[in-house]
Amino acid sequence: MSFLSLIFFIFLAVCVVVYYLVPKKGQWIVLLCASIVFYGYATRMGLLALLAETLIIYLLVRWMEQKPENAKKILVLICVLAAVAMLLLLKYLPESLGGKSVFSGWFFKDLLMSLGISYYTLMIISYAVDVYREQIPAETNYARLVLFAFYFPSITQGPINRYGDLSPQFYEVHMFDGDAFFKGLFRFAWGCFKKLVIANRTAALITAVYGSQKSTCVIILLALLLTMLQLYTDFSGCADMAIGVSQVLGIHLPENFRQPYFSRSIEEYWRRWHITLGAWLKDYIYYPISVSGASKWFIKKGADRQAKKRRTKLVSIVALMILWIIMGIWHGSGMKFFIMGVYYGVVFIITMLLAPIAERFDKKHPKLVASPLYKFWQQVRTVLLLWLAPILFSVKDLSQLKTLVSKVFTGFRFGTLFDGTLLKFDLDALQLILLAVGFLSLLVVSVIEYNKKETISELVRGQKWFVQILAWWYVIILILLSLNIANTEFIYAQF
């Protein structure tokens, strides 16, 4: 049930009406039923499989809470392994065997369509580990754990929720709030704008360029650059929709993007891009490795203070590389995802090692560092360093990437952008203009959000009534003008 389908709009309207009409103590039950229906609409067998997994985790965690420390470690490890095993079975095994077609029959096909299995896995693991760490109590109601794991606005593409943050909100009294309702609707509309006006158009152009034998160097370079725009608008657009839907229901979801391409370093970028995934990896992969018994033993073996520092840095490097490889594999089993993880790891580690040199440079040249031009260069440098990852998302395999890269080094002619060649790749002049208008709109909004530290829905809601009407009309008109463009599947829906 796509966020952009008619059936979803009907589903959401019914859900919202019932949600605010039922007795307040029953609101969480409405959310639970809606989440089950939403998930079951796509895959009945996948729903049953994950309900069974949730039951296993529920029972193990309840049991774990009553056990001594050594037994707790074993039980939490079993929880993690059970969750990972289900992920391997439903996602990575079919990919490694050549796709879902190797499993014949409706049973397997329906089972392997499990929505958001990667997101579900991370959330259920975080729940078990947080109980083990005594950061939250074990849930005593199985249905409530199911609601956390299947909450429909975020199950398909995140954000990745934490039980301690999200679950308590389900059981609060949520009265209808007109201000929050309209903020949520506009946030959803802005997500639709990103997807329909920008992401779908860039997808059409990129697909046409990649599939054409007539693509020239400059056209391919443009398409490769547009992959960054497509990935961002597609993924952040879906996050906006999820946050907006949840806000309509009075539930707060964490922000997943904060203008990542304005980042001045790789580290800052990962504090702004897929924020909840970065936080999850840090809390459940990086820190456990860094403070593990083996790491502490290795550091203590240093002969002196300097040796201990070097060993501490080496532990950080190993932890970072493991983190980024897991991040790559989480996205998919193909070699391109492994390379993406290694690439991010290498770039991040090099950045960390060069940090002391950069700090000394900043201290020696404070005026240069404070200049807008230098800050702009830092942003451009960060974008260039990150260019490879979106490209890996957009190509089918490494052989296609090799073909595209080989063409980049043949016959550079900048005039190709203006001689009508672009019109041969699925988008006519009007569609290219609308894409440019959408991009400039996104850029202006992002600059304002970056400076004001507020979201677009908060900014619009704070304006006078006629400005709000103009903003609504602008977004709606551009969306309507984009309905004739083929609507591609959300990129992160595959995870």
Going by helix content, strand content and strand pairing, the class is mainly alpha
Report the end-to-end length measured between terminal Cα atoms: 15 Å
Major beta sheet, specifics?
none
Q: How many distinct beta strands?
A: 0
Domain module tally: 3
SSE order in H/E notation? HHHHHHHHHHHHHHHHHHHHHH
Count the helices. How many?
Answer: 22
Radius of gyration: 24 Å
Give helix % range.
over 70%
Structure description:
The protein is mainly alpha-helical and 495 residues long. The chain has three domains: 6-170, no CATH class; 178-253 and 395-494, no CATH class; 266-394, no CATH class. The protein is 72% helix and 0% strand. Helix 2 (27-42) packs across helix 3 and helix 9 packs antiparallel against helix 10 (217-248). The longest helix is centred in the middle third of the chain and has 34 residues, at 178-211. It is globular. The two termini are 15 Å apart. The mean pLDDT is 86.
Secondary structure blueprint with pairings:
Elements: H1 6-21, H2 27-42, H3 44-64, H4 69-96, H5 106-111, H6 117-132, H7 142-150, H8 163-170, H9 178-211, H10 217-248, H11 266-269, H12 275-290, H13 293-300, H14 305-331, H15 335-364, H16 366-370, H17 372-385, H18 388-394, H19 398-408, H20 429-452, H21 456-461, H22 465-480
Short description:
72% of the residues lie in helices and 0% in strands. It has 22 helices and no strands.
Q: What key phrases describe this protein's structure?
A:
22 helices, 495 residues, mainly alpha, globular, 3 domains
